[in-house]
Amino acid sequence: MKTKRYTYIALALIALTAFGGRATAQSLNDNGIFYHSFNSPWSYSINPALFPTNLSRYSTLPRTNVDLSLPFSYRDLDLHYDSERGATIFNLSDFLNLLYERSLRFSANADVNLLGYGYRLGERFHLGIDIGMRNQSITTVPIELTKILTQGNMNENRHLELGTSMLTHNMSYAYASVGLGYTHPVLPLTIGARVNVLDGIQLASIDKITVDVLTSADTSTLTFVLDYMAHLGGILNIDPKNIGKTQFSFSFPHNFGFTVDLGAKFTLFDKLLISASLLDIGPGMKWNQHVKEIVPQNGPAHIDFDGFDVSRIRDTSYFRAVGDSLLQKLNFTTTEKEYWYAPPSRAYIGASYTLFNMLRVGYLFHGEWSNGWFRPSGSQGIFRFNNTLSLHFNLFDWLELGVANSYTYDGQKPNFFNPGLMVSLNPGKQVQLYAAVDYVSSMNLVDIRSAHVYFGMNIVAPKKDFDE
Fold this sequence. Notes:
Structural class: mainly beta
Strand content: over 45%
Number of helices: 6
Low-confidence stretches: 1-25
Number of strands: 27
């Protein structure tokens, strides 16, 4: 029986991945430490069925979560001082080899929730409202291309594996969400749904890029063959052929759209809770303000490269001329047409066991598709995921402590230690002052490459006080 159960779980996870289309597995720097919280409204934001059990209503003051991920730590720079030369030494070759192993990826995300409100409508229904702004960005520097430029092509034609098909993506948008949950009168089942109305602020994204490197017969010249797709849109009117002519025009709202969140939870023996949610499922935003789609004009672009003039390495005009020449050789065409673009779609599967309303042990699978399930035709994306174990301690709803650790896999190496810590002080059970380092890649400051931080304050009404 256990074997069948594990098989069903595995098939479910495979099905979730399949829905996202073609994607490359990467690690995700998010433990979801609030998902199994006893009474934090953050759990409701991750699953619309997880309205805090001990609360009848809540109001969230401006709250923030920010995460940053780098491909290297301070220790990885391996800086050391040479007293004889009176200089700090940095080994560029070893550093590039390290980045090549890891994939040179940067990501930064921020979510500022300006206003949140939740209300329990009797015993069967609950309502949630949120208004805020988000920014999501991820960039992968093609480190293998860097090695080609510094080490040559070894007289071979190659198709470069850049570490991602989506080179860079940055999107900012505002959102307003309304959700409703329902608890079954007989079954220990709660389901929830939420509609997110979105308005795009700015989008700049290279959604597809492939590079082939061809070597001339005398090995004196490299030819790069590029196929790509990029999208621009939002309050900045960017001219790809002359960035200096970028214009700002504020008009709000403009790039409207929507997504839907779905969630469910099922309780067994009042202790074991099974839950799942799908967030930001839908077409996203219809971008129609200063929109541009950039693709090669006559098929993949061919760019010849015969090296740099090292003697002019400090000449800014030289590199400016090289850059202008490169833009001309890209030979792209710009089409001003509307398109739909979605925020990342996310999936959560969780299980937790609670003892005496004081201790809760939890497991969470978290998967994320970088630019949604319904991305523009021809564009590609990244799938990232992790698995997290957590432990929460609740002291009479006055204090909550949580610790978590996730297992991640970056497509090459597993990482078994990515801890997180949360603290929520609830004086009088009316106010929640909380902060969390949800995820760090190391406990040693000089080894940290990724971190995810939450902080804010909520005004809450305990369920018992409200019922009275």
